[in-house]
Write a structure and sequence with these properties.
- The strands form 5 sheets. The chain has a 5-stranded antiparallel beta sheet, sandwiched between helices. Strands 7-8-9-10-13 form a 5-stranded antiparallel beta sheet. A 3-stranded mixed beta sheet has the order 3-4-5.
- With 417 residues, it is of the alpha+beta class.
- Helix 5 packs across helix 7 and helix 9 crosses helix 10.
- 36% of the residues lie in helices and 22% in strands.
Length: 417
Amino acid sequence: MNSLPTLAPATAARPHKHAIKEYTRELLILVQPINSATTNEEVFRIFKAQEGLVSLPVVEDGRPIGLINRHIFMESLARPFHREIYLRKSCIAFMDKQPLVIEDGTSIEELSFRVLADSSKVLADGFIIVRDGYYLGLGLAQDMLGAVAHLQAEKNRLVMESIDYGSIIQQSLSRASREGMREHLPDHFLIWEPRDVVSGDFYHFQHFDDGFLIVLFDCTGHGVPGAFMTLIMSAFLQGAINAESCRDPARLIGEINRKVKVAMGQLDENPGAGTEAHSDDGMDAAFCWFDRRTRSLTYAGAHMPLMLVLPETDGVTVIDGDRHGVGYATTAMEQRWENHQLVLPAGTAVYLFSDGVFDQLGGDKRIAFGKRRVRACLTEHRDRSLPEQRHALLAALAEYQGEEPRKDDVSAIGFRV
């Protein structure tokens, strides 16, 4: 008579519960197998003796030939006359002849696909683990599911660590602009709130002896794709700025448009059904040059408005940008943008907003926050400092948003000249 197969101690068969399991061998449970000569009576005694034993492997010459499920076996023997008929017969009468057999070097990910493809019986029976076709032990579906969950959690952790570090890099790239604004714009605010850790919105400030250039841009997408686009746009912007180009924002936008279209192969302005698929990414932007000697502001925009609060004037003045994005396949290579030039009296407040502010859903009707509410907030708090206005704007947006999720990156720049 065969000796009773036993489960090996958990410490010998399984790694620490917090370890990340990557291969099937790490799910191994050592179970002594039986062979085809084992009777159902012996199988019955084994299951009775070991209540935690889910399945019993059947092996011939070291190779698995089947698997006996505890529940199915016990239920079958409980039927009328089955014990009298089958008890002394070979165990293969109740054996699944096509169990799932997995090599021990199989990855957990591949194992999960095999389990899903091999029907629901594996969830109840478990699977047999082999090396080069020779029996090693059993694996349980619940252990596999736990391993998959831990692997996914670990992958998510690594991705989030990378994205978090990407945020540090993105903020480092804009440090000079933040420091420049603090030094040369005594009364200003900056709002830069990524929806997903890293942002598709970006900003640039550069001071010159006679004035400064300030730029806010909103690239296609948000999160990681948007952040990649900000790196591309920032590189082209840095390469295009010089003492002459900064004074002509419309020309500067046009130069960046050409660079982006060429670099990303977005040259087809009228893509048709037979056109090879390609990216169609770009940015909305507002470029402003302020000349301190003449107090003139030159603004050019691509889908991004300029807002002004003039002293001793009611309301908010809005100047809309051109209706052409920068770099997109549908934007012409030689597209031109328009400069708007204004002489600003002392104390004028200037504002740039990305559409994440205007488009945020909320309120009782779940509609966009909109430009009207932004203008109302600016008008109400016009006499306050720009940092105080920033607080008021964010408070109004948060109250309006309520329980709605953040729709997009939110960015804005305000400064008084």
